[in-house]
């Protein structure tokens, strides 16, 4: 048994852990868990836990149902919100992320974590390590009852320093809880819309970060629940204000060196960085169904609410899809690219995988980077945008699925299993949405027609 697995077993015994939750996600990024007792943990670490994959969306068909959840001991962590009470109270609980395997021990093709690991392997073969740092935006509401419009907990705005209010306290508690779990937070703030908040996670490798996004979303929601309120990562829960994005900063490292840096070139961006950006732009439409996977995601990606709908890049221009932030003097190794399309409700494993795949394709095929967008794109007319060769991201889930379906890059990156299931599931979601009569239609047309 490896030393990390021995550490896990020793910690469980020394800390009196009563349950260990084995975490994984379905294809859409919905968190799943199997709770086991310490007596079963050593066997789970050695052999994995068998479960019926046909019960999980996007996993196995009934005739090939059984799969294995194999814990990744490096992801073991105590859940701080569980206590140290007696058998009748809140007992100590830990979690560990799992890779899903077929019964023969080979990677299960429907596992989103495996999709990301496979893409990271391709990056390693090219000599790169992929790092990411997302900004998680979300809302606090009085409750999660969909029968009435959401009720915000505060009326704050961007960067507002509020007094002692419930939502600010919850955000602070969330940051402290994440830090207690060993998840470093760069900073946290009130966002632009009422009761909208943001937590920025510190750079780390993309696999660890995908696990971290899943953890952070659960921590946000769990701490809100314990205070009797509701936290939502829905991309656009409120009309007339900004939606919740997951702007993601990223870079490629070659050994200890940031491969996006070349001090001898104008702007300090390396050829690798420019080709990576070109790959993102070239394949942006194809990957949008993954980075923005819900019907509601496209209520955020509209003009007028600062969402990045124009396929373009720029230094420090927030109207562009890809932004290259200005770096402080002497901090060249912090050079990074920010991809601004994803929302906080995506599956981070699949989102990071397709973003990386798009960038790598640009490097492999030496895509040429288009000129930088030097204007506020939101203020330009359709004719002006067309003259600059700037197109829009897909305007609906239906459009995004069409771009995805014809993408060889997406099929290769996701694999047949995930690619085909995702398309079927999302086509069904669009069909259900298209046939639904909304309150907007009733308000507009019932009295008139």
Summary tags:
alpha+beta, globular, 13 helices, ten-stranded mixed β-sheet, 2 domains, single chain, six-stranded mixed β-sheet, 449 residues, Ubiquitin-like (UB roll)
Summarize it:
This protein has helices at 3-14, 38-47, 112-125, 166-180, 206-226, 271-282, 284-291, 297-300, 348-364, 382-387, 397-405, 408-434, 439-445; strands spanning 19-25, 31-36, 49-52, 66-71, 77-78, 93-101, 129-141, 185-190, 196-201, 204-205, 230-232, 248-254, 257-258, 310-315, 320-324, 337-339. The protein is an alpha+beta fold.
Summing up helix and strand content along with how strands pair, one would put the structural category as alpha+beta
Count of individual domains: 2
- Sheet-strand content, in percent, reads 15-25%
Could you tell me the number of beta strands? 16
CATH superfamily of the largest domain: Glutamine synthetase/guanido kinase, catalytic domain
**CATH architecture tag of the largest domain:** 2-Layer Sandwich
Main β-sheet, in a few words? 10 strands, mixed
Distance separating the two termini: 72 Å
Gyration radius, rounded? 22 Å
> Helicity level, as a percent range?
25-40%
Describe the structure.
This protein is α+β, with helices and mostly antiparallel strands and 449 residues long. It has two domains: 3-108, Glutamine synthetase, N-terminal domain (Ubiquitin-like (UB roll)), CATH 3.10.20; 118-440, Glutamine synthetase/guanido kinase, catalytic domain (Creatine Kinase, Chain A, domain 2), CATH 3.30.590.10. It has helices at 3-14, 38-47, 112-125, 166-180, 206-226, 271-282, 284-291, 297-300, 348-364, 382-387, 397-405, 408-434, 439-445, and strands at residues 19-25, 31-36, 49-52, 66-71, 77-78, 93-101, 129-141, 185-190, 196-201, 204-205, 230-232, 248-254, 257-258, 310-315, 320-324, 337-339. Strands 7, 8, 9, 10, 11, 12, 13, 14, 15 and 16 form a ten-stranded mixed β-sheet that branches. Strand 8 and strand 9 form a beta hairpin. Helix 3 runs parallel beside helix 9 and helix 7 (284-291) crosses helix 11. The longest helix has 27 residues, at 408-434.
């Amino acid at each position: 048994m490896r030393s990390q697995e021995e550490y896990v077993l020793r910690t469980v015994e020394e800390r009196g852990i009563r349950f260990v939750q084995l975490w994984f996600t379905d294809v859409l990024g919905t968190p799943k868990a199997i709770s086991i007792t310490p007596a079963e943990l050593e066997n789970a670490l050695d052999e994995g836990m068998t479960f019926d994959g046909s019960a999980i969306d996007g996993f196995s068909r009934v005739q090939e149902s059984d799969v294995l959840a194999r814990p990744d001991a490096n992801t073991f962590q105590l859940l701080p919100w569980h206590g140290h009470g007696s058998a009748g109270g809140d007992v100590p609980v830990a979690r560990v992320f799992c890779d899903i395997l077929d019964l023969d021990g080979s990677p299960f093709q429907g596992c989103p974590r495996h999709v990301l690991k496979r893409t990271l392997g391709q990056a390693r073969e090219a000599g790169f390590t992929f790092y990411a740092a997302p900004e998680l935006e979300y809302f606090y509401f009085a409750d999660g009852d969909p029968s009435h419009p959401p009720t915000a907990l505060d009326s704050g705005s961007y960067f507002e320093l509020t007094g002692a209010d419930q939502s600010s306290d919850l955000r602070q508690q969330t940051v402290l809880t994440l830090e207690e779990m060993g998840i470093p937070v760069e900073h946290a703030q009130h966002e632009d819309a009422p009761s909208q908040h943001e937590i920025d996670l510190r750079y780390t490798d993309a696999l660890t970060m995908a696990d971290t996004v899943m953890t952070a979303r659960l921590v946000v929601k769990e701490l809100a629940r314990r205070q009797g309120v509701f936290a939502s990562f829905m991309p656009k829960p409120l009309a007339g204000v900004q939606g919740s994005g997951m702007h993601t900063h990223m870079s490629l490292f070659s050994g200890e060196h940031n491969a996006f840096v070349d001090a001898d070139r104008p702007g300090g961006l390396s050829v690798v960085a420019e080709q990576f950006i070109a790959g993102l732009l070239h394949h942006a439409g194809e990957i949008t169904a993954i980075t923005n996977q819900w019907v509601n995601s496209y209520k955020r990606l509209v003009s007028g609410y600062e969402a990045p709908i124009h396929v373009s890049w720029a230094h420090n221009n927030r109207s562009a899809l890809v932004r290259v932030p200005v770096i402080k003097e002497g901090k060249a190794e912090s050079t990074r690219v920010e991809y601004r399309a994803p929302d906080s409700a995506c599956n981070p494993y699949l989102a990071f995988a397709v973003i990386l795949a798009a960038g790598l394709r640009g490097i492999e095929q030496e895509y040429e980077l288009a000129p930088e967008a030097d204007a506020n794109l939101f203020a330009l007319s359709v004719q002006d945008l067309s003259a600059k060769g700037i197109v829009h991201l897909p305007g609906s889930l239906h459009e995004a699925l069409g771009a995805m379906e014809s993408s060889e890059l997406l099929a290769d990156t996701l694999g047949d299993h995930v690619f085909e299931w995702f398309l079927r599931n999302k086509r069904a979601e669009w069909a259900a949405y298209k046939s639904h009569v909304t309150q907007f239609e009733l308000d507009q047309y019932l009295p008139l027609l």
